[in-house]
Amino acid sequence: MASFPLFEIWTTINVKFRYFGGARAGKLDCFFFLFFFYTVSLHAIVYNRYNHLKEAIESMEDQLKRLRDPLQLNLPTPPPRPTSNA
Fold first, then answer.
1. How far apart are CA 10 and CA 4, in angstroms?
2. Helix count and strand count (H, E) for the chain
């Protein structure tokens, strides 16, 4: 008998969280895009160039991660730590 009220409470909380959380995240995304395109139009920035620069930065970061990989650097593996059997 106690399972139905618990399920009802859980469902209510879940629905409210999804509604308010999802609605807020969607509004924030919408506001960001409105603000971004409004600012771009004010300063006459070509946003295709902005997208190209962002993609170039991401590719450079990926290349740096790949180059900093310990397996890529051929570093020796650290010796195993001695275990104490106390």
1. 10
2. 3, 0
